[in-house]
Amino acid sequence: MADAPEHRAGFVALGGRSNVGKSTLLNRIVGQKVAIVTPRPQTTRRRILGIRNDPDAQIVLIDTPGLHESSKELNRRMVDVARRALAEAEVVLGVIAAGASIDPEDRATLHELAELKTPMVIVINKVDLVPRPQLLPLIEELHREFPAGEIVPVSALRGENVDELIATIKRMLPVGPSLMPEDEYTDQTERMIAEEMVREKIFLAMSQEIPFSTAVRVETFADEPERKLKRIAVVIVVERDSHKGMLIGAGGRTLKKIGTAARLELEDVFETRVFLEMRVKVEPGWTRDPAKVAEYCP
Q1: What is the DSSP pairing of strand 215-224 with strand 229-238?
Q2: Quick one: which of 183, 189, 182 has its CA closest to 223?
Q3: Which of 30, 81, 125, 289 is exposed most, by the fewest CB atoms within 10 A?
Q4: Alpha helix locations (H) across 146-186?
Q5: What residue spans in the chain does CATH classification 3.30.300.20 cover?
Q6: Looking at the predicted structure, is the pLDDT value of residue 197 above 70?
Q7: Is the pTM of this model over 0.90?
Q8: CATH classification for the domain delimited by 190-296, as one of 3.30.300.20, 3.90.1800.10, 3.40.50.300, 3.40.630.30
Q9: What pLDDT, in 10s, does the model give residues 20-49?
């Protein structure tokens, strides 16, 4: 009888510029919605951890904010969070968008990741949006510039070739026991999940300017098991009075729409009824204040 394969486990960080699909890929690999996903760049602000447990391996995935240059305090903090997570991983996934050639921002990001000297998989995402013949020159270019990196094309949205990516990651992980509880798929608390879910619905509902100057914090989170209910109160922080007005909307309709969408998804995630209360507070210039950024985006 053949011996069972050795169990492998390790931390795998997803790095890349904003809006290349890192969060969608993390959710696809884990098999659960762990990270919020919107069409807007810089949606991810904090380190998000997702766990895939298989009989032969535990992959502990870390989603990171998009790497970019900015003078804003909030953006600098996001990039610092990303770089710390990437430096601590055993395997790095350099996620780029498919195209006819390497995007200049993707190239700069991959070179930064290569400097970590960590085993790297270059993940060409969104291959469903590009004709297959166009991918061949891109793959050849990546092989020339990054000969040490494995290259795996995928569609995180459709799940195409993700099994091959998972197999590649497993081969690169160190042999060892699981690092996290095997019955969990994230280390996020229920409070954190509620904050992220409300923020996702704000991103999806509002115009481009407002979401980036918005933070969400849970003020109270109470379980009422006898009523099969979670009672959650959140504060939404914005920078301007005009943003508050737009977020609330005429007759409170916009805020109600956001709250309903968040509540329904939270009920699905928590598998219980949710009472969600939201209020909006103005904190002028909070995204430029290091103390406020640390408070609202821990």
Answers
A1: antiparallel
A2: 189
A3: 289
A4: 162-172
A5: 190-296
A6: yes
A7: no
A8: 3.30.300.20
A9: 998 899 999 999 888 877 666 556 656 778
pLDDT band of 289, cuts 50, 70, 90: confident
Residue 186 dihedral angles phi and psi, to the nearest 5°: -160, 160
Sole residue written with tokens 């447990």 = 53
Range(s) within the chain of domains with CATH label 3.40.50.300:
8-172
User: Which residues have a Cβ under 8 Å from the Cβ of 22 and sit 6 or more positions away?
Assistant: 14, 15, 16, 35, 44, 63, 64, 66, 93, 95
Residue 279 neighbours by CB under 8 Å, 6+ apart: 233, 234, 235, 236
Is CATH 2.60.40.10 the classification given to domain 8-172? no
Reported as a single tens digit per residue, the pLDDT across 157-188 is 999 999 999 999 999 999 999 999 988 898 88
| Distance from C-alpha of 195 to C-alpha of 96, rounded to nearest angstrom | 28
pLDDT category of residue 68 using cuts at 50, 70 and 90: low
What is the sign, positive or negative, of the torsion defined by CA atoms of 98, 99, 100, 102?
negative
Amino acid at site 65? P
What value does the mean pLDDT take over residues 111-138? 92
Fill in the amino acid letter for 219: E
% pLDDT > 90, the chain:
55
CA 49 to chain centroid: 8
Residue identified by tokens 């953006």 is 75
Q: How does DSSP assign 193-235, residue by residue?
A: HHHHHHHHHHHHHS-SHHHHT-EEEEEEEEEEGGGTEEEEEEE
CA distances from 230 to 189, 190, 221 (A): 14, 10, 7
Q: Which two tokens stand for residue 229?
A: 């209910």
Coil, helix or strand at residue 150: strand
